[in-house]
Structure formats: structure tokens, C-alpha cells
Write a structure and sequence with these properties.
By secondary structure, the chain is mainly alpha-helical. Helices cover 65% and strands 0% of the residues. The chain has two domains: 51 residues, no CATH class; 99 residues. The chain has seven helices and no strands.
């Protein structure tokens, strides 16, 4: 049997491995052409994707929302029952992003917020192993105490920041 006749018979009724090999080549060529561009774009945009996952606050100054937000997240961490509550937010992105920190006027309040973000991130990473199980978090009392210290320092700084008007004694009530 000649090579031509064998080739003709092979092309008329090809075995599965030949069909698979041809399909693989047809798919591999476009992938090889497109992959370098796609992968470099994906690598460049990964940090943007990570930041977009974080809650972004726009059209509002950071001074007005950062303390309540940090307080809520800290309270959530103090009572964490599952890892999602302990690692709900990142204290290096989101609210604590450098762009938000730059909106704060320099002073005691700004320093307290920046320090709180760094401290909360440190606490979160230090005690992450205690909240590694999917079913429960075993947050030690020392971590809860450290979180409470951060909250206390934030409350003092917030009360001195004059961001809220003090309430009058009668709260606008008319008395007879």
C-alpha cells in the first residue's frame, strides 16, 4: 500500500486522536496569539479589581463617615462568630485607602484614624489564625481588649473633632 493511498484512507475515516489533534491545533493557535495580551492586561488591572471589591465612598468627605464605619467594623470583629465577620474588610484598602486618608485635615483626628487603620490591620492579621476555621472564631479576650482600646482612642478623637453639633438640653421642645 502506497503512502498516498494510506493518507487518503486516513483522511476519509480519521481516528479520534487525529480529530482531537486537529481540534487542539485549531484552538491552540488563537490562544497562543491572544494570551500574552490578555494576561498582561489582567495583571495590570488586578489591583483595580481588588479595590473595586472594597466599598467606595464618594461625594462625601472622609471625615464624616470614617469613624462610624471603623466603629461598626471593629464592633463586628469583637463579636465575630465566623471568619467572614473577622475578615469582612481590609484595613489597608477601602475606608483606609490613602486617598481617603488624604481628605482628612491634619491633626489629632486624622492621626487617630490613620493609627486606628494600621492597628486594626495588625490586630486582624495577628489573630487571623484564631479565626481560621470555617465554623467558628475563637477570638481571645486579649484581641477583644485591643479592639476596645482602638475604639476608645477613636471615640476620644472623634469627640474632639467637632464634627457634630452638640445637642441643646431641651432638644427644641416647647415646655409650658
Amino acid at each position: 500500500m502506497s503512502f498516498k493511498s494510506r493518507l487518503r484512507r486516513h483522511l476519509r475515516n480519521p481516528p479520534m486522536r487525529t480529530v482531537f489533534l486537529i481540534a487542539l491545533i485549531v484552538v491552540a493557535i488563537p490562544v497562543a496569539i491572544v494570551y500574552p495580551g490578555v494576561s498582561s492586561t489582567a495583571r495590570e488591572n488586578w489591583s483595580d479589581v481588588q479595590q473595586s471589591r472594597q466599598r467606595q465612598f464618594v461625594n462625601v468627605t472622609a471625615a464624616s463617615w470614617i469613624f462610624p464605619y471603623l466603629r461598626r467594623q471593629t464592633e463586628r470583629m469583637k463579636t465575630a462568630d465566623v471568619p467572614m465577620e473577622w475578615r469582612a474588610v481590609s484595613f489597608t484598602n477601602g475606608a483606609c485607602l490613602a486617598e481617603h486618608m488624604d481628605q482628612l485635615a491634619s491633626g489629632k483626628y486624622s492621626y487617630a484614624i490613620k493609627n486606628a487603620c494600621e492597628t486594626l490591620h495588625t490586630i486582624q492579621m495577628t489573630y487571623a489564625a484564631d479565626c481560621a476555621e470555617t465554623s467558628a472564631c475563637n477570638i481571645p479576650p486579649q484581641a477583644v481588649g485591643e479592639l476596645q482600646d482602638v475604639l476608645d482612642r477613636l471615640r476620644v478623637a472623634f469627640s474632639d473633632a467637632n464634627l457634630v453639633q452638640p445637642y441643646p438640653d431641651d432638644l427644641g421642645q416647647i415646655r409650658d
